[in-house]
Specification:
The chain is mostly helical and 182 residues long. It has one domain. The protein is built from 7 helices and no strands. The radius of gyration is 21 Å and the shape is elongated. The protein starts with a helix and ends with a helix.
């Protein structure tokens, strides 16, 4: 799990500048995650935690199915390119197209897997926020406990939104290039 998320960040770092990675994986999530320090809100009081869990579960299911579709498409494209009869396209060109498609598939599956892991983490955090913990030694324990969970949840949620936008952008760029190539 950690390796998948690390590979996703490394992939983004290869394509973007170091400043881009710091801004979108550190600074913006940190700023968003400090909102509970200044605003008072609770998912449990509003009853929206169930809706958020349902939405994240739907996204997880969608992303799982997308992983299988992408893997299937990469295999289909691999078979199509390698088994195509000679149509005047040089072998090197076909191999380059195949390698680009395989790299795209690997990167996209890695990014999607990272979003699944982060979504599962968010679901666990939301479920943990429903617990009401009391401590005789620390009278404000529950308050600090919820503050930490909300801060981590907002941090992960902002990274999740960035990764979803990255997935859409990668798919658009690749498929638009495929369409305009033909």
């Amino acid at each position: 799990m950690i390796n998948t998320i690390k590979d996703t960040v490394c992939h983004v770092a290869k394509e973007k500048s170091r400043g881009h990675v710091i801004i979108f994986f550190v600074l913006i999530p940190l700023v968003i995650s400090t909102l509970p320090l200044y605003l008072t809100f609770s998912l449990a009081d509003d009853g929206i935690s169930g809706n958020i869990i349902s939405g994240l579960s739907l996204f997880i299911g969608f992303f799982f199915s997308l992983i299988f579709v992408i893997s299937d498409r990469v295999q289909f494209k691999k078979d199509e390119i390698l088994n195509r009869e000679s149509d005047g396209t040089p072998d090197r060109s076909r191999i380059a197209k195949l390698n680009a498609y395989i790299d795209f598939g690997k990167q996209l599956v890695g990014t999607i897997s990272s979003t699944v892991y982060i979504s599962l983490g968010l679901i666990i955090l939301i479920l943990l926020s429903e617990l009401r913990l009391e401590s005789t030694f620390l009278p404000d324990f529950n308050k600090w406990y919820l503050l930490i969970i909300q801060t981590v949840g907002l941090y992960l949620g902002s990274i999740l939104l960035y990764l979803i936008v990255t997935i859409l952008k990668e798919m658009y760029d690749f498929f638009y290039g495929q369409i305009s190539e033909k």
